[in-house]
Give the backbone structure.
Amino acid sequence: MKIHLKQIPLQGLHLDGDEDCPIHDLEAEGIRCAGKLHHNIDVGITGGALWAKGSLSQPVELSCVSCLEKFVHEIEVPGFAVHIELHGPETVDLTPLIREDLLLNLPAHPHCDRDGNRVCEGKQPETVEQDAKRNLDWSALDKLKLKS
């Protein structure tokens, strides 16, 4: 996302829209863009520096660490903020800074049931044998007679 400095008015500029995914090069790592980057950012120039603040949202396709199924996860960056000293060029590219914030908000261990909308098949259900063993563990306490 390149911003032309001469197009920013004194009161600032509001940018709301969609851009191409800035993390498309991570497909080898199992992370695939599942849509466009949505941004809602205010930018301005103060004291020889560009400031930008707002929110970012990027849908990506990840693989669950439990069941290895692919699922779509929305990377949310609600507090995107940058301050860049201006030293000459008429345009400033925010893409590397946006990319960094998106990568920092990727889940370290993605689970497909993280949002509660589905049940992960990789989690092993308890069997009757496991339930019986658990009951045997408490049987010694059942025999305990306490004075009341």
